[in-house]
Amino acid sequence: MAVMDARAGSARVSLLEQQVRELQNDRTFLENILDSLDAHIAVLDDSGVIIKTNKPWQKYAEANKLGLPPDTIGVNYLRVCDEARGEASEGAEEAAAGIRAVMDGTLSEFRMDYPCHSPTEKRWFFMRVTRFAGAGPPRLVIIHENITPLKEIQEELARREEELLAYAKRLEETNITLKTILDLRESEKKELQEAMVSAVRQLLVPALERLKTARLDEAHKKELEVLEITLRELAASSIRTLAGRQLGLTPMELQVAMLVREGRSSKEIASLLNISTETVAFHRRNLRRKLQIHGKGQNLRERLLALT
Question: pTM of whole model > 0.70?
Answer without folding.
Answer: no
